[in-house]
# Entry
Amino acid sequence: MIINPNSDIEMTKAIEKTAENYAKGEFKIICKPTMGGPRFIARYEDHIMSATGMIKLVKENEEKVDGFIIACHSDPNLDLIKEITRKPVVGIAEASMKIASMLGHKFSVISPIEHSIPNKEALVRKYHLQDMLASVRAPKSKDNEWSEEESLTKAAELAVKEDKAEVIVLGCAGMTGLDRIIQKNLSVPVLDGVTCALIILTGLIKYGVSTSKVRRYNPEF
# Structure
């Protein structure tokens, strides 16, 4: 099950399309928006606003699915969701950045807006990947006359040329489907978070492992 932490129906459909293209009918995808959540996750307040709806989706589907993906590149409430289910849970930011660390010496995250750059940098530090981070970039406000694809491609090009990034991570679930398009213009891998999360989640499911519960349920440890 893929949970879109925001309530945007069109973004949810785009995420589902990417997932179905990856699955190729080999496994079933359930993709849901978080009703009652914000239209876009940009602030820590948005994380809190989406929490109740995300918990509801997990509890309603716990016995119906083999695992969960949190489809927002801020990984909102990821630790919370890992705590309340015994099924494996993967956030698209953690998945894409950790796969990026396997594909090159340095990676850059392309954020949708400049406002969220500090949050992305904090997330990189949380996952102990700061030594492999080349940069976090976002399209400049002056680039508004360009299409989204052109603006993101330009930001990615600058990350490769100026920051020496060897891998590009698309830092928003709403960018899903643009990885191959942007990669055509670059000489480095471009990673879509939804696809990266599916790669990891399906592997965890096949292996039969999930988040350790020792310290979550046994405080004496």
Notes: The two ends are 31 Å apart (CA to CA). DSSP finds nine helices and eight strands in the chain. The mean pLDDT is 93.
